[in-house]
Amino acid sequence: MPVPPINRIGAGQAESDIPYEFASEVKMDPVLREEILSVLKATTDMTIATIRPDGYPQATTVSYVSDGLTMYFGCAAESQKARNILSNDKVSLTVTLPYFNWKEIRGLSIGGTAKPVTDPNEINRVSELMLRKFPQILQYALAGEKGVFLVRITPEVISLLDYRKGFGHTDLVEL
Prior knowledge:
By secondary structure, this protein is α+β, with helices and mostly antiparallel strands. It has a single domain (23-98, 105-174), classed as Electron Transport, Fmn-binding Protein, Chain A (Pnp Oxidase, Chain A, Roll), CATH 2.30.110.10.
């Protein structure tokens, strides 16, 4: 299968004039939702990009849990990630399933908002999800680790990357 040419923007040409050949915007249907959820359930780590005060993105790998399409992670309350989220709640993240060759690449690219979790009931529920997925966190809880900043990510746009459907195939879903 030939690789499509890279589109370049010429003088006087708007980016919107260039067709995007790899992504097709689709409506969320039950099959697509299940595909997205299966990727979220099968992975443990994501790379999340937050926005630093100087405007540069900061990408960091963190472990996460999900409840439907909503994702949660914890970090140190004094971390740069926590400070970034408190000053700008826009985030982007990626999740990729393990693969052995490019024809198997599957993953998600998500844009959304990140908010601190402060409701005690939600904190308890997310803590249970984290303990089930990552039993090793119990050692930190028993050691009395403090200053955890728990974050909820609410997706607004999801790109489902699936090379099984062709090189660079992406389904784009706006929520």
